[in-house]
Amino acid sequence: MRHREDEVLFRVTAADCEWNYSRSSGNGGQNVNKVNSKVRCTHKASGAVGVAQDTRDQHRNKVLAFERMARSPEFAKWHKRECARRLGKLRDIDETVERLMRPENLVIEGKKDGKWTPIEECSNDD
Description:
The chain has 126 residues and is α+β, with helices and mostly antiparallel strands.
């Protein structure tokens, strides 16, 4: 029995991606020149990309490319926002980020005499 917090919010499948196939480079003999075994997977919503040309088998490379795309930082960032959006928390996140990004909450620093110093103090040398 699944708990409510274990419910699947959404699935990402091959249909959510754009697929490109090309010839691999490197070792592999004549097979490299004849078969489109290199696979590039691009997740349309996040722009995350995974590429595989590890094996001579296009299907195996397709699985590897999808896994690499799903483990990319771009996909992770999109996944967090999509989960928040679907859970109704995106507005809370956006408001929190907006609050934290206000000028009074930011300190911009530069190096002065080898030490990190607030930028106002760095620009007084001119």
